[in-house]
Amino acid sequence: MSSAPFTYEPVGATRDDPTVCPPGFHPLYVRTRIGEGREVFQRAAEAVLTWEMHRALGVGIDATADRAAPGVDVTVTLAGVVKAPCRIIWTAEEPRRAGWAYGTLEGHPECGEEVFMVDRTGDGTVWLTVAAFSRAAKWYARAGGPATRGLQHAYARRCGVVLRRLCAETPEP
Questions:
Q1: Is this model's pTM higher than 0.90 or not?
Q2: Which residues are CB-contacts of 171 (< 8 A; sequence separation ≥ 6)?
Q3: Nearest-10 crossing angle of helices 38-49, 139-168
Q4: Which CATH number fits domain 27-168: 3.40.50.300, 3.40.50.360, 3.30.530.20, 1.10.10.10?
Q5: What element of type H or E holds 27?
Q6: pLDDT of residue 145
Q7: Does pLDDT of 52 surpass 70?
């Protein structure tokens, strides 16, 4: 774990409520139905916790561990150019809920916190929630304005599409 400080406050705000959005930040909340049943939940949870979903999106992932855990540093590389350093703040691995949140570090084009959470509701439906609060930290993110937020929403929706596809495939032994 690096000692680099987070670039925003309040760190960990999404733990109890992923829809939280502190003043001065932009909210993001995208919920996608993945499928049904315990097996789909387990497959989805594993794909999120081990970076498989992110890698299947085509983004670069450089993490200090193979599995999300508090304190793990992760650098996401977008389009092979934009590096976005983050640190895992909290994780959840529960019978009906699994995922994590990370917060931005210096060098990330945005500052804020993002959650990737899989949950299984009482009727057995499995959902992926991608939620965040963020604001521009770099000039090019500020220059993008609403287009930058549109790209964030598109990325969150794509996470759901990719995770649904991964869960429909038969995992390798």
A1: yes
A2: 43
A3: 140
A4: 3.30.530.20
A5: strand 26-36
A6: 77
A7: yes
